[in-house]
Each structure stands twice: as structure tokens, then as C-alpha cells.
Amino acid sequence: MADATMTARPGAPSRNWLLTLLELRTYVALIVVFTVFAIMAPNFLSVDNAVLISKHVAINAFLAIGMTFVIITGGIDLSVGSTVGLTGMVAGYLVLYGIDLGLGWSIQFNTLEIVLITCAVGVFVGWINGILITKLHVAPFIATLGTLYVARGAALLMSGGRTFPNLNGSGTYGSASFPAIGAGTFLGVPMMIWILVAVTAVAIYISRRTPLGRAIYATGGNERGAALSGVNVDRTKLFVYMFSGLMAAIVGIVIASQLRAAHPATGEFFELNAIAAAVLGGTSMAGGRGRIWGTIIGAFVIGILSDGLIMMGVSSFWQMVIKGLVIIAAVVIDQWQRKLSARIALTQEAH
């Protein structure tokens, strides 16, 4: 028995070390891309560039947080980019025109009301996705692909494809503070970063401290087993898609207020960055595993990678190729990690 124990031990530390390295891959990737661009990209370490990157990271992170919950349940949400465009147009329309009641009457809204209505639109799009998936049993890929087109078409119809410009708001109606959501600062930090901190805290609390969080992981880990153990799988899926829609609405509001304009094409391909950040952050495409904090680090990697490539003058076409390779690499590494974890678990059971 002593000999058997001694021969079993040498392989275990190396495997555990490799597993730890795979689990920390997001942090390693962040250190690598930061170091490379700090050396090679001019002005990368400047304060202005740090602020710019933080804003880009925030936009990716909002969507990636919602996408993380969706992917953990074993789903996917391809509609978030189009929802960004739709909700941005809704916010722009409400700022400029309010709601026309006819006969010269209209309802005007203050900034808080505009934000709440726009968020409700995003949640509604997520609700539609959830209903299609849970009640009509449409595959998540197909359901959200359909709403991708519907939301983008609705955004185009709202203005005939034109931009809603000059979203400065009105002091008379209490909407003059609308531009501050995306362009304002508090204590020298952009407002969108404060919003991201609050959203991240809520998402982490839900995932770690609530029965809903446990239901999300259980649904993705083993949907049938979760249902048999009393988890309301349909309600859980409905929540994650509605939450993803809410995150998209926040991004739509932030971009419209930051640019003081809303365009129906806003948000194109945003879903790709969200998926990349979530997967790079350790969220398994097979479902059942993922961390919000890891997703935030993944969003930093994607944001730094995008801005660094731009600063180095890399073609936008090559940027798409590189992002695609990052997603593929993240999925492959995730599969390695799962296989290695299973192998170590079997080894430990055997001894």
C-alpha cells in the first residue's frame, strides 16, 4: 500500500498545477495583452486612453454579465446587439418627442422616466426570448436570432433609418440630465463605471447568495435533475433572458446619452464581444459553470485588445479575425479544463 501511494502522488501535483493555470487563464491573458500593448502601442498608458478603455470595457461588460447568466443556463442570446440599437432609439425618441397623443397633446418625460421606460423595453425583448424558448420550445439560437432581426427592424422603422440627433434633453421637462448618464462623471470617474460597479455587485450577489443563483447554475448543469429537485426551470430561463435584455437596454441608454444621438445601427456585432468576454472569463458554453468576476476580467481583455489593436493601426478586418481566434481558443481551453477536472476527480476517487 505504501508503494502504491508513493507512485500515485507524483502525477497529482503537476495535474493540479496545470488545472490551476487553466482556471487562471483570464488573468494571464489580461497581463499578456496589457504588457504587449504597453510596450508596443504609443500613448497606451496615458490617462486619457485609460478613461477611453474603461468606457469601452463598461459597454462590453454590461452585455457580458447578462450573457454570462444566459450561457450558464445552457442558452445563448444573439439579440443583445439589436436590443441595444432598439432601446437607444426608444430613449432618443422619448427625449425628443415624448409620446404624441394627437390633437396637439403629448406626454413628456424626465430622465428617470425615460430610463425606466427604455429598460422596460429591453426587459420585454428578453421576455419574448424567454417565452419562445420555455413555452414554445424554440432553440435559443433560433429564437434569439429571430428577435435579432425583429429588434433591428423595429429600430429602423422608428426613424426610417435616420439618426435621432441633439439628445440634450429639456430643462422644462426634467430631461436635461440625460447626457450625463453616458458622458458625466462623479468624483472624477465616468458615471457608466459607477453604474457598472452597481450592476456587477448585484449580479455577483444573485449568483452567489440567492436561491435564484443556485437555480441558474443547477439549470445549466443538469436541467432535468434541477427540475426533479424542485427548480422552476422555465422561470429561471425567463429571468436570465429578461436580465440580458435589461443589460442591453442600459447599454443603449449609455451610448445614446454619451453620443447625444441615437442611430438604429448601434450595437451591431456587440453580441460577439459579449460572448467572447463571457467565454474568456471562464463561462462554459456547455452550461453550469461561470463567474461574473471572471466575465468582467474577460471584458477587460476584449476591451484592451480592441483598443490596443486600433492604436497600433491594425486593420479592422484583422481585428475580427483575432477576436474570432480568441473565442475559439477560449472554448478549446475550457474543454481541456473540463476534461482535466474530470480526470483528476476520477484519480482522487480511485485513491
What's the layout of helices and strands?
Elements: H1 2-8, H2 11-23, H3 25-40, H4 47-72, H5 80-96, E1 99-102, E2 105-107, H6 111-134, H7 140-159, H8 180-183, E3 185-186, E4 189-190, H9 191-209, H10 211-221, H11 223-228, H12 233-259, H13 270-280, H14 292-311, H15 316-350
Antiparallel strand pairs: 1-2, 3-4
Helix pairs in contact: 2-15, 3-14, 4-9, 4-12, 4-13, 4-14, 5-6, 5-7, 5-12, 6-7, 6-12, 9-10, 10-12, 13-14, 13-15
Organism: Poseidonocella sedimentorum
GO cellular component, one term: plasma membrane
Protein name: Erythritol ABC transporter membrane protein
Structure, described:
Keywords: Cell inner membrane, Cell membrane, Membrane, Transmembrane, Transmembrane helix, Transport. GO terms for molecular function: transmembrane transporter activity. It is found in: Cell membrane. It comes from Poseidonocella sedimentorum. It is a multi-pass membrane protein. This protein has 351 residues and is mostly helical. The protein has one domain (59-340). The chain has 15 helices and four strands. The chain has helices at 2-8, 11-23, 25-40, 47-72, 80-96, 111-134, 140-159, 180-183, 191-209, 211-221, 223-228, 233-259, 270-280, 292-311, 316-350, and strands at 99-102, 105-107, 185-186, 189-190. The strands form two sheets. It has a two-stranded antiparallel ribbon with strand order 1-2. A two-stranded antiparallel ribbon has the order 3-4. The protein is globular, with a radius of gyration of 22 Å. It starts with a helix and ends with a helix.
